[in-house]
Amino acid sequence: MAEQGEEDREYRQYQRLEDCEEDSPPGEDDEEQLLLHVTEGPTGTGGVHHPLIISLTLPHIYHFHQKNGFACVVLSDVLELVQFLFVVTFSTFLLCCVDYDVLFATRPLNHSHVPEHAKVTLPDAVLPAPQCASRLRAKGWLLFLLVLAGAVWLCRLVTALRRLVGYWEIRSFYIRALGIPAEELCNHSWQSVQARLLALQRRQPLCVQRRELTELDIHHRILRFRNYTVAMVNKSLLPVRFRLPLLGPVVFLTRGLQFNLELLLFRGPAALFQNTWSLRPQVKRAGARRALARGL
């Protein structure tokens, strides 16, 4: 009976809260995940200490550690940009600069210096540069796709540069606040980094919030969007379960569907979150939920 009473008390902790028509209490919307670190040396002409605000979230700090530091992040971004350029350039070369009739020997070579039964080599099938350029100009759809690919590449370049600035701030935070040099980051586990974060929180305020930072807070912030997704799947709010003839119930969640759901719910212009850590104020009002649901 005592165990049953304890289970009942634990169950009551998870009962649904009553809807509230009022806005969130003051201060809840300001629970941001900005990290504050006071610089050790004087800054500015007056030599006054000021907090260095790291306007990035704990998930960025976690991913920075998982990607083994600043050099690996930069190398990864550079290789992705180079890979994109290589794929576009090589695909264009294969479409416009290769004579496949010669390559597959469906048409004989017309070079006087080549014997009739000579072996066809790759240079024989590659068209000259002027002929390749003329074939490229003749295909308007290909030019349009190249312009579109160039715009996508520029967007990815700008995104990589912006991410580079953020990761440089995180690198400074690891070195100056957590005392982990860049060359030793790969020797520290995430548990070690998390312990240093908690120790720093105890020495000086680290997160702009009203309560102490704990391991559970860090895990919740890192897995916030994933936890929301798992909860919506468990509550059958996302259309990922289907019943097929002869096969019965199946789960269908491709990468493309997952990307669209994250864009719709978390990262898009009409998402429920106004940033990476807080919901929009109107989402928290019970009276506006039905209208928001219809709009969504």
Automatic annotation (TrEMBL):
Keyword Transmembrane helix found: yes
InterPro entries per record: Autophagy-rel_prot_9
Cleavable signal peptide: none
Biased composition (Basic and acidic residues): 9-18
Transmembrane regions: 141-161
Entry's localization field: Preautophagosomal structure membrane
GO biological process: autophagy of mitochondrion; lipid transport; piecemeal microautophagy of the nucleus; protein localization to phagophore assembly site; reticulophagy
Keywords, sorted A to Z: Autophagy, Lipid transport, Membrane, Transmembrane, Transmembrane helix, Transport
Topology class, membrane: Multi-pass membrane protein
Acidic residues biased stretches: 19-31
Record bears the keyword Transmembrane helix: yes
Residue segments, region Disordered: 1-31
GO cellular component terms, semicolon-separated: autophagosome; phagophore assembly site membrane
Family to which the UniProt record says this protein belongs: Belongs to the ATG9 family.
Protein purpose: Phospholipid scramblase involved in autophagy. Cycles between the preautophagosomal structure/phagophore assembly site (PAS) and the cytoplasmic vesicle pool and supplies membrane for the growing autophagosome. Lipid scramblase activity plays a key role in preautophagosomal structure/phagophore assembly by distributing the phospholipids that arrive through ATG2 from the cytoplasmic to the luminal leaflet of the bilayer, thereby driving autophagosomal membrane expansion.
Protein name: Autophagy-related protein 9
Species of the source: Grantiella picta
Gene that this sequence comes from: Atg9a_2
